[in-house]
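FAQ

Q: What does a record look like?
A: Structure on top, sequence underneath. For example:
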């Protein structure tokens, strides 16, 4: 399933993925829950997922925090205000915040988590990640009051989505086509 989703995204092509990522960022930034979040956990996508780096700006009403692999299965999140100067190449070849330039976030201050995934169920909010369990562990350790939003391209919506017992669904799903509530909020 994971490989099939990467192939679907590859077929879209980089220009279409970039345009879809821009629309996803616009859809996210309009959500009231994001506007009022205080701190939003985002991620810096690679060419196989929507890229949300455009949401790291000082002129927004929330603080944007991005993950850095901090150990086996553990993520730390750091505030990023200038993606051009504050990202370095990190684990798995992904862009990560430079911990020397970006303050770490206390997860108790987080209002919204934007979770990446290889595939999502639009009906239930079920999420299939990359397979490392980083976000499953993160989501399991957060307060139920933290709002969770899955982000993907429309071609990554799969019904039904095979899941495991440890998989945690998101409350909302955002694609380039719009926003869907998943009935978990």
């Amino acid at each position: 399933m994971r490989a099939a989703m990467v192939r679907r995204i590859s077929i879209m092509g980089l220009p279409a993925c970039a345009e879809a990522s821009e629309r996803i960022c616009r859809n996210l930034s309009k959500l009231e829950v994001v506007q009022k979040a205080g701190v939003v956990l985002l991620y810096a996508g690679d060419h196989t997922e929507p890229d949300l780096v455009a949401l790291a700006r000082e002129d927004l009403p929330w603080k944007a925090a991005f993950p850095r692999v901090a150990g086996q299965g553990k993520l730390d999140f750091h505030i990023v205000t200038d993606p051009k100067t504050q990202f370095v190449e990190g684990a798995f070849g992904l862009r990560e915040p430079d911990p020397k330039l970006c303050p770490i976030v206390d997860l108790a201050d987080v209002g919204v988590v934007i979770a990446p995934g290889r595939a999502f169920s639009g009906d239930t909010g079920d999420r299939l990640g990359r397979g490392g369990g980083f976000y499953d562990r993160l989501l399991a350790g957060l307060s139920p009051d933290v709002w969770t939003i899955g982000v993907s391209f429309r071609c990554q919506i799969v019904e039904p989505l095979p899941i495991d017992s440890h998989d945690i669904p998101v409350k909302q799903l955002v694609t380039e086509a719009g926003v869907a509530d998943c009935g978990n909020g």
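Q: Is there anything notable about this one?
A: The longest strand covers residues 63-71.
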